[in-house]
Amino acid sequence: MVEIDFNSLKIELGEELLPIGTVLLVQGIKQPVMVYGRKQLQGDTEKVWDYVACPYPQGHLGEDTNVFFSHSQIQEVVFKGFESEGEKAIRKQLTSLFSGKE
Questions:
Q1: Is residue 59 classed exposed, middle or buried when 0-12, 13-18 and 19+ CB atoms within 10 A define those classes?
Q2: What is the pLDDT of residues 30-71, one digit of tens each?
Q3: Cα dist from 87 to 5, 42, 44, 70, 96, whole Å
Q4: How big is the chain by its Cα radius of gyration, in Å?
Q5: How far apart are CA 41 and CA 63, in angstroms?
Q6: How many CB atoms are closer than 10 A to CB 52?
Q7: pLDDT for 93-102, tens place per residue?
Q8: Rounded (5°) CA angle 70-74-85
Q9: Beta strands in the chain (DSSP E)
Q10: Mean pLDDT, residues 66-88 taken together
Q11: What angle do CA 14, 98, 30 make, to 5 degrees?
Q12: Distance (Å, whole) CA 71 – CA 50
């Protein structure tokens, strides 16, 4: 039987927004996080971040554990979330909306 260490597989980051459910490492944070929102406005600020995530594997524990970050801050993709046709359509809409393109 061949054993595969799935943690050793490298997933390319790319330029596109990553799907919901993606688990990754972000600069300055030691614990993996899981993406649960994209193009999110952070609370009382006027800043729109590429992603909001929660600690993995704990999940969303409250607003004080939300992690907001930009695509450029991603160090490593550990697991890429599910990409249905609906996911691809929403990602395309988000990209168009926030890039000013139709």
A1: exposed
A2: 999 999 999 988 887 889 999 999 999 999 998 888 999 999
A3: 28, 22, 28, 19, 14
A4: 14
A5: 13
A6: 19
A7: 888 888 864 4
A8: 80
A9: 23-26, 33-41, 48-55, 67-69, 74-79
A10: 93
A11: 50
A12: 6
Closest CA relative to residue 15, chosen from 85, 95, 100? 95
Nearest to 91, CA basis, from 65, 71, 73: 71
Task: Report which secondary-structure segment, H or E, holds 58.
Answer: none
Q: What is the pTM of this model?
A: 0.80
Residue with tokens 């649960």: 36
Residue 15 CA to residue 67 CA, distance in Å, equals: 20
Both structure tokens of 70: 């930009």
Structure tokens at 98: 């926030």
Q: Which two tokens stand for residue 99?
A: 């890039």
The residue to which tokens 């054993």 are assigned: 3
